[in-house]
Amino acid sequence: MHREALAGNPNPSRHLQALHFLGALARINKLRARKSPPSRRATALGGRRITRAAYAAMAVAAGPRRAWSRAILLGLRRNSIAKPFLIKKRILKPHRELRDVGSRAEEMEFGSLLDETLNYIHHLTAQVGIMQKIADSLCK
Amino acid sequence: MSSRRTTGGRISEDEINELISKLQSLLPESRRRNMGRASAGKLLKETCSYIKSLKREVEDLSERLAALMSTMETDSPQAEIIRSLLR
Boundaries of each BHLH domain copy (chain B) (predicted)? Predict the structure, then answer.
């Protein structure tokens, strides 16, 4: 199904990131459809779920070879067995992923840190683009 | 984006310089002012604020998507688009 689309694609990781994010959105939407009408609290909760889905998509697309994506993927795995109220603290703390990388900065030499940072920015900007396109198409 | 890594772990000074200029070309302010080589400290500071603003954008877009999706009916054409993309 995706293979033909990916074959000639010069940027397969972005494709994977978009597909993973769309899948998560579809799941979130399914959950929401069950509980209607939507309250304001539900929308705020949905926003946080979507943010989590965004970072998950980034981490999956980057793969386990990056320190920052590993931090996210491991955090997500921990959360699946952690209590629900811990989820907000873990994933949504700003710069958590980079801080995890930075706390190992003494061991990680400057060049690797730059490399990780560039890759992180690459996936962040890709994610912003993906979300903007989806929002725009939903507005039409 | 994959950058080739030297085997053995250590990145050479040339590669560090290349990474620094790649980073500088990404940063919006450095691009605008078309600076010559910025100091590493300034570059890192700008990188941090750029990443912060990108993360804020992700959160804002998440809120926007949540609001848009809450008004979306399950059988709207948009839902069908998403479903067809995932098939």
Answer: 1-54
Q: Look at the pTM and tell me if it is higher than 0.90.
A: no
Mutate to test the interface with A, among B25, B65, B74, B82 (most CBs of A within 10 A): B65
Tens digit of each residue's pLDDT (9 = 90 or more) over A1-34? 444 444 555 577 888 999 999 999 988 888 777 7
Tell me whether residue B1 is in a domain.
no
Between the two ends of chain A, the Cα-to-Cα distance in Å is 27
Rounded Cα–Cα distance for residues A127 and A112 (Å):
22
Collect all residues of chain B within an 8 Å Cβ-Cβ radius of residue A1.
Answer: 87
E strand intervals along A10-95: none
Does B79 fall in a domain? yes
Judge whether B19 lies within some domain: yes
Q: Which of B10, B22, B74 is opposite residue A33, by nearest beta carbon?
A: B74
